[in-house]
Write a structure and sequence with these properties.
The protein contains 10 helices and 19 strands. The protein is of the alpha/beta class. It binds nicotinamide-adenine-dinucleotide (NAD).
Amino acid sequence: MAEQTTQHDQPTVGIIMNGVSGRMGYRQHLVRSILAIREQGGVLLADGVTRVQVEPILVGRSEAKLAELAAKHGIEHYTTNLDEALADDRWQIYADFLVTKARAKAIRKAIAAGKAIYTEKPTAESFEEALELARLAEEAGIKNGVVHDKLYLPGLQKLKRLIDSGFFGRILSVRGEFGYWVFEGDWQPAQRPSWNYRAEDGGGIIVDMFPHWNYVLENLFGRVESVYARAVTEIPERVDEKGHPYAATADDAAYAIFELEGGVIAQLNSSWTTRVNRDELVEFQVDGTLGSAVVGLFGCKIQPRNATPKPVWNPDLADAHDYDGDWIEVPTNDVFENGFKTQWEEFIRHVVEDAPNHYDFLAGARGVLLAEEGLRSSAEGRRIDLPVVTLEGGSTDAATASDAPAAPAAELTGAR
Ligand SMILES: NC(=O)c1ccc[n+]([C@@H]2O[C@H](COP(=O)([O-])OP(=O)(O)OC[C@H]3O[C@@H](n4cnc5c(N)ncnc54)[C@H](O)[C@@H]3O)[C@@H](O)[C@H]2O)c1
């Protein structure tokens, strides 16, 4: 892809940043990623010498907000007219951090404009639409990427290292706890946007978290082959940003079991209605024949087989053993940068020098499928098998419910 060059002949890639006034758009994508990349002089390419600089144009609905952000961060370009930005060759990448509901429409326009596209998850509100976006992007021959930020967390990177080293032996199971108390908004303002709690506005913890769980599980342990989930709305009424009560129509907690390729069982709780009694807001315990690990966003501790205590169940005696003390903290041994920024750098390298990118719209579609089938599992009260998703919509596995007759072929192929 042809890049712009600055007056100093430095190659520059122009990035349309849509939804930059939002929580994710502002903090993670603009400030912590693109501005941090600009500050460091650009993205270092494979030759180890060339740096591609980034030039953002902020896009949103409120000119005043955009002007304020642009002034605050010394950004030259902003507009409320997405179509104009898309029609302008100065901008090679379209990046989307809009509310989920608004995403697919904007991405379709960006595909039609031939831009490379980088987007927040979930890529669309339905699997059918997510798969269609993947197909359209493929047909248009445009590069596409979806945020997989959790994989870049220091804790998960350390976990990956343990897996690659063979530490676990045969991995048996994964148990994950994600969540914290999100205030209802009455006597203390909620710390998440209110649309998250309205199904009609694209909210819900399954839609929000299952796309993350899909890529975490498939990249670390194996493809998700089935899901059983129970979604609940624990707090039926909340108060929005303007102080108005509203009906919380979306699930705010989900309890799920995933069966993975190779036989690993993962059980993950996701909740905005739980109080934290862990070291971090997300924690996974992985148990294997040769050892176990507990990882969070940053931390990672292990217990190998040959340092495993031998508890004996005795309800008559208080157990004085310090189980926490049996674990060994894994050292960092590396510099882990903000994961959003690292993934942005990889995507920019994908765009300008064809570096590999596995986290594309098809990966995004698999995440949307897991969310959709998780909700279906909850509604129908049963385990649901997941097809292998391909761009063609083909499936090598039968997507059949465990206790139900085979689903019709159309249902397996994503042609729903
Ligand atoms: N990767 C992660 O860890 C992570 C975390 C939270 C949210 N997200 C995803 O990021 C996206 C944004 O979430 P957020 O928490 O930043 O939300 P937010 O409400 O803070 O921001 C949403 C943005 O979309 C804009 N917007 C809202 N309605 C719109 C419409 N109809 N048309 C055009 N623009 C509109 C808003 O002005 C704002 O800029 C969501 O898709 C969400 O799933 C990802």
